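Support request from a user on the community tier.

User writes: "When I paste my structure tokens into the form, the page sometimes reloads and wipes my input. The last time it worked, I copied everything first. Here is what I submitted, just in case something in the input itself triggers the reload:"
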């Protein structure tokens, strides 16, 4: 039982019902949304070779293999794409102190 991708979670229940009917999932009518998401996730993962080229399910498979963590090369360096992401992250600013607090620290 693996985590359900966000692509399935953001779908509304009627959309999940349409998807379940399209991919051939059985007995999905009375499932709760979370259970339907999990059932579709399992079904789509086990039938990847058959459903991967389907235009309706491409959103699921496109995001399924996306990297979570950047890998380092053999030299221990992070790839250029990863360093550009790190460069965009701002350092948190130091909290400003009131004059009273600053005077107490200096005293």
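"...and here is what came back when it finally went through:"
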């Amino acid at each position: 039982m693996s985590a359900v991708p966000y692509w399935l979670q953001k779908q509304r229940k009627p959309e999940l019902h349409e998807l379940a009917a399209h991919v051939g999932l059985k007995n999905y009518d009375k499932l709760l949304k979370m259970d339907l998401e999990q059932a579709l996730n399992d079904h789509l993962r086990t039938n990847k070779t058959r459903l991967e080229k389907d235009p309706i399910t491409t959103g699921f498979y496109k995001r399924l293999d996306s990297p979570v963590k950047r890998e380092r090369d053999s030299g221990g360096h992070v790839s250029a794409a990863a360093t550009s992401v790190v460069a965009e992250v701002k350092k948190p600013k130091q909290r400003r102190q009131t004059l009273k607090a600053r005077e107490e620290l200096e005293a």
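Agent notes: The reload is a front-end session timeout and is unrelated to the input. Residues 33-46 form the longest helix (14 residues). The helical segments are 6-9, 13-23, 33-46, 48-51, 58-64, 80-88, 99-106. Escalated to web team.
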